[in-house]
Amino acid sequence: MRQEKSRLDIFIDRMVSQRACLDHAAHLIAALEGPVFELGLGNGRTYHHLRATLPDREIHVFERNPTAQPDSTPPEDHLILGDVHDTLPAAGERFGDSAVLIHADLGGPNLQKNDAFARAISPLVEPLLARGGVMVSSDRMYFESLAEIALPEGAVPGRCFIYRR
Amino acid sequence: MRQEKSRLDIFIDRMVSQRACLDHAAHLIAALEGPVFELGLGNGRTYHHLRATLPDREIHVFERNPTAQPDSTPPEDHLILGDVHDTLPAAGERFGDSAVLIHADLGGPNLQKNDAFARAISPLVEPLLARGGVMVSSDRMYFESLAEIALPEGAVPGRCFIYRR
User: Pfam families given for it (chains A, B) (predicted)?
Assistant: First the structure.
């Protein structure tokens, strides 16, 4: 009946792809030790999912202004408050290159803005990832040393990206 | 790996069910004449989907405070501004019982609040629906004369409800 995808279609593709990529990433990092970083808390649904999927991991959430409901907000000592342009370099000093999974859903409605943001934070994210670690993003990132890897079954090309060191 | 559904899982189920029910409803009303009502614009994704699915229908959106992006906002003469406790009865005077599809996604995070709202608006929605018309809702509604009908393939029980006069 429809010719083109609606915004609802695209949104569902994005959410389904995000979940498929995160669940796939959880398998890829199973043998690695290290923390998980969630860039942006939003309403906390993805953090809630990460915690359910990786119950034994330290999950640190980078957020400027946390507004999610309590069951989807990390404890204070796992919330890294501030602008990621500042907090990502600071995380390098604290955690080195120990992160085994970093997830970012920058996805606002403005694609150009998302892309500019992805370009700006790529060099800040790259040095945080452990060898074998995985970055999952809803936007294309711009890494020098990380390889884009194949999407898992169920993920829609262009709606999610996975990179691995 | 996971025992229980995460908030992300539940949200995906809700979005997928909403789309499945709306697409199913579009078939059910294909032979009927009359307008479509969307209760609440939100970010406009579902309105965008309805317009793509039903390009030849009049779609009226009931919203107190429209904030969606322009490509997902109806033209001014199809936007019914105000509180639905007032605008639904007024729509009865303007449209009678001619609506062939009414959709509502009341879904805030507070389930008790959603249920109270569903109870309050059910008697306001019920008289607007044409014979054969369909109501799709993300919450259980409380109708006297409308029958709950089976969900289409792909919809998850409890995440969406369909009623028909």
Answer: Methyltransf_17
ipTM surpassing 0.95, yes or no? no
How near does any CA of chain A get to the CA of B27, in Å? 10
B124 in Cβ contact with B83 (< 8 Å): no
Query: CB pairs below 8 Å between A and B: how many?
Result: 69
Q: Which of B7, B9, B69 sits opposite A72 (nearest CB)?
A: B7
Whether B1 maps to a domain, the answer reads no
- Number of structural domains (chain B) is 1
In B, minimum Cα distance to A22 occurs at B8
Residue B122's domain comprises 7-164
CATH number at residue A64: 3.40.50.150
Tell me the per-residue pLDDT of B75-102, one tens digit each, with 9 for 90 and over. 999 999 999 999 999 999 999 999 999 9
Q: Is residue A147 part of a domain?
A: yes
Instruction: Give domain status of residue B73, yes or no.
Output: yes
Residue B142, in any domain of the structure: yes
The minimal CB distance from A6 to the residues B7, B8, B48 is found for: B48
Q: Return the residue of A nearest to B8 by Cα.
A: A45
Residues A58, A78 contacting (CB under 8 angstroms): yes
